[in-house]
Amino acid sequence: MIRAVILLGGPSRKASYGTYEQASPLFPVSGVEIIGHLLNAIQKLPNLKDFVLMGYYDKKCFQYFQEKYQKLYGKNIRYIQEESEMGTAGGVAQNLEELFEEVEDLLVVHSDICCDLQAQKFYEYHKNKSGVCSIMTVRVSKDESTRYGCLIKDSKTDQLIHHAEKPEQYISNLVNCGVYIFNQTFKTTILNVKAKKEANLSEELQHQPYVKYIKRSTDLDKLYLSLENDVLKQAERDKVYVYEHQGFWQSIKSTSDLLNANRLLLQYYGQNPFIFQSPDFEIKSDGVLIHKSAKIHPSAKLGSNVVIGAGCEIGEGVRIKNSILLDGVEVKNFSFISNSIICYNSILGYWCRIEGDVQFLGPWVIVDNELYLRNVVCLQNCRVSKSQDGGCLM
């Protein structure tokens, strides 16, 4: 049996996408919550026992999500709330016995990714290698690689040779996807790493007490552990294997990443409509997803890569491309929207033009008639009464 653990992190302005009332992993992309896409892929594992959500959000944030997906998949979904920010391995280390109870392996997945996760193939690979840990990786461009954890593997055995988290210089275009499988032996590995960190920290503070003034708070927290920076660096290399994913993958750290993830998912579901698990939406041609309750004027032109949420109203002559409109958005006649995320219940007036690299309008934003917004971030509950080129509106 295997248990799936989704690492959620916690509240952060950087990753809130402008909607502070909503946990970032619940932000809808292609009509489904970010982590909903992951659960949909993972639940296909035939020997999956249950799901565990782990993070330092308040547990109430995920109560509706848990109930919804428990009914949908018939699998128990628990939430383990961390006391504080504990890193990508801290919460796992603190709850090892509970996580490994009645299962042989853990599938650990970061919540801020989008991919066509082939969970069964990855699991079979892990079992064939018989290693302590298997890491899912993907090839990216040379320029992009330094944004992620870079890995070098033995081309014959797939064993991990070297790992560098966000290196300053190019090392490899094979990057960590944030998806792992650990077996029971991993408990010993992570406990050894935890004990070593605690011992080193105690000794360092004893002989160099001034370090607490120059180090980050997370470096001084005995409960804080990073899978990437702490555990992988000290794990025995001959027991860690690297699985190369052949599908698409996108890390989600910003609003532009959200739009890229939306594009990739719409293409994927367009080619595989039987995989899409939201019956309230209808997949159209050219990567367009429309909620069945939305009202679209026949003269409006949508696409490519457009999602229209529940209760949206799109007026006459409107043009929308490469954008996400969440529930309740109203777009008046003859407006143009490109490369934008428009959040809940916002209203765009007549003859507006919203374009640029990436635009983000938070919930309950009103844009007056005949305005031009380019490369603008507009926070929630804001009225826009004049045109703007760049900047943040509050």
From TrEMBL:
It comes from the Eukaryota. Residues 4-206 form the Nucleotidyl transferase domain. Residues 287-387 form the Mannose-1-phosphate guanyltransferase C-terminal domain. Signal peptide: none annotated. It holds the Pfam family GMPPB_C. PANTHER family: SUGAR-1-PHOSPHATE GUANYL TRANSFERASE (PTHR22572). Belongs to the transferase hexapeptide repeat family. This is Nucleotidyl transferase domain-containing protein.
